[in-house]
Amino acid sequence: MPELAHLPAQRRRTVLHHLEQTGCYLQTAEEILIGAKLAWRNHARCVGRKHWRSLKLLDARQVRSARDLAEVCWEHLRVATNGGAIQSMITVGPPRQADGREFRIVSPQLIRYAGYRNGDGTVTGDAANITLTEFARKLGWRGARTPFDILPLLISTPDEPIRWFDVPPELAREVELEHPEFEWFAGLGLRWHAVPAVSNMNLEIGGVTYPFAPFNGWYLGAEIGARNLSDTTRYNMLPLIAEMMCLDTRSERTLWRDLALVELNRAVLYSFRKAGVYLVDHHTVAKQFCDHVEREKSAGRACPTDWSWINPPLSSGLTPTFHRYYDPPDLDIRPNFVRRDFSGEA
């Protein structure tokens, strides 16, 4: 990697020697940070890659117990929240062991909301997290069954059963949603957390896999307003918002969903700004991504991109990312983040 060209030649010889003797090698913190930045730059599904150089590293490779790893995650949230000026951050735990055993976070993000099945077939909370919630309950966790119960963090280590840890309330910063014009909106009781710290992806750098590697940027407003709170498989808030707006929901031709969707997204942007928590709107981030693509082109680099992921879930045709082609995703490019799916089993 040209980003490591400044390292002395002796470092390369040392690594090759360790690989020959043991089949593995220990990366330096600098190598991990550079690799993590490149993994972000290479990840085809991220629209926020323009800021890949801003990533900060918390090196936790020497931590071994689930409790201590949880404490590291709390420090990650503290630093990343940064008083609302969200800091892009990655925490790297122990690498995968030679025998395949690993330290990992079972939870898909450091902060997720629970989802509970009700007897009448409805769901309280985030329907996307029903399986995770039921798994946590089997481990002994009990939530209050409100729409926004923060799930515990589930951590797996080679020498312990999966353990759960409640997220300290003071580190789970949330924004209560209100609307700049609709006074009734605050009464809906909607909220969302400030830091989108993804924790179900392996970080792969130079032949070394780090399963414990939670990382975050900052939210795109539409992630919250046009997906998390709007999807029928999540909070499905559009019918209620449309009702409160007195929209005609009898026909799709009235575009009631679209009207409600825009107002929900306005509420998200307004509320985060009022709370002093940074996020970005979909028009701004689309322009930033196009700038990033051109910068990569000028540097002689391809920019693998999954078109379906970098375009926003509302008003896509109004953004510049929609009206162009990109280098196709490269599943083999490394460094990169590689997703792990949660099966609902230990």
Low confidence ranges: none
Mean pLDDT: 96
Percent in strands? 5-15%
- Biggest sheet statistics: 4 strands, mixed
- What topology, given as strand order, has the largest sheet? 1-2-13-10
Rg over alpha carbons: 21 Å
Could you give the order of the helices and strands? Answer: HHEHEEEEHEEEEEEEEHHHHHE
Structural class: alpha+beta
Shape: globular
Q: In the residues, how many domains can be counted?
A: 1
Q: Please work out how many helical segments DSSP would assign.
A: 9
Percent of residues in helices: 25-40%
Note the gap between the termini.
37 Å
What report would you give on this structure?
InterPro entries: Nitric_oxide_synthase_Oase-su, NOS, NOS_dom_1, NOS_dom_2, NOS_dom_3, NOS_N, NOS_N_sf. The chain has one domain (28-320). The chain has a four-stranded mixed β-sheet with strand order 1-2-13-10, sandwiched between helices. A three-stranded antiparallel β-sheet has the order 3-6-7, with helices on one face. It has helices spanning 9-22, 29-42, 66-81, 130-138, 221-228, 238-244, 256-275, 282-298, 307-310; strands at 56-59, 89-92, 104-105, 115-117, 123-125, 153-157, 160-165, 174-176, 191-193, 197-198, 201-205, 208-210, 215-216, 336-339. It has 346 residues and is of the alpha+beta class.
